Amino acid sequence: MRTRFIKTTLIAIFLLTFSFTTFARIGEDKGAIQGRLFTKSGGAYIYPSKEERFREAMELPYKYMFLLMPDDTKQCFFFKRADETTTTMSDTIQQHELYGWESHIALQNDSSVLEFYRRHGDPLTVEELTNLFELQKKENATWKKTDFIDTRKQWSIQTKDGKPSITASKSTNLKDVLPILPNRFIYIEIPEEVKKSTDFQQSLQSQIMEYEQRLTYAKYRNYLDKQSQIKEQKTKRKPKKTNTPAVNANARKIIPADSYTHRYIETEFSSQDNSKTTRIGYNIEDVFFADRPIKSPTKEVRLSMYIPTQPDTAFGYSYETSDGLVRAKIYRNAVLFFSAKFDKQLRQYMEDLYKQQSEKRVEEAKASTSKF
Length: 372
Fold this sequence. Notes:
Layout: H1 2-15, H2 30-37, E1 45-46, H3 50-58, E2 73-81, E3 100-108, E4 111-120, H4 126-136, E5 143-145, E6 158-160, E7 163-165, H5 174-177, E8 184-187, H6 192-195, H7 204-235, E9 262-270, E10 277-285, E11 304-307, E12 319-321, E13 326-331, E14 334-339, H8 340-368
Antiparallel strand pairs: 1-2, 2-3, 3-4, 4-14, 5-12, 6-7, 8-11, 9-10, 12-13, 13-14
Helix pairs in contact: 1-2
């Protein structure tokens, strides 16, 4: 416990003097960062309280990723003015009127593995974005954009004798034949070593779970209240009406099955020499299935997230350095940098969870369809 406290204190000390021109770099160890960033002017303000750190974490677009991070990961949240003036607590009191940078840094084994920079007040300029990207790459590395596109649905259409045609899959694997989307989700589970750590009750993960537990209880109580009202309405004695036709007591509301099966599409097909173009309207099968979390109310916290269809990543990314060490993702007025190694580590944990949970769903599916 004492070691953890000392470690956290040291991190806080060097971040208190964080300068805009000397943002941290992915992969740097704590000693190098401390030696480079320790200045007496132009420093940042680190959010010191549990409440402030929780607020900062819950404002992030990847807030639930904290629950998947391993025990050797530490979090730092701070605010930096947009000029070289030292930042103080007074600059952060009015959270809706911030002017500068709110940032989050994750350290794993005392090295930076994730950094998020969000611009407040003025828009993030091209020059600022360029500077941040330049700071994150090694001397001989360059940035490149990935060519990955997150494809949700795909229809393979070709022409045969001037008409649309689909080549059927010859695979004997049922999943290759059925219309199954690549969407995969997991129910979030905090790593066991994190839950067993001595300071878990004081951790950010514990705060997030306590908050989500309160929300879950509130939703469950609302659900029970609605069910109680429905039951009360059903059992409430209604006044007798005269001269009304008899109603079958066993009659129920008719709910027809969804008959949607196809989508109408119009496509232009060109001849091989492009001398002729034919526009054809046709119907194509448009029923797809994918993993979806359970929505039925419960007192148990069930947080879920989808695994990116992009390979080997937990966050998803659009930019990567040529040496493959650092990845980046741009948001509106914000940018996220993270270690490729750390990203792959989180993805592996997600894959392990998916495997465990999908095996459980297979058994549940057998029980659900056992009498058919």
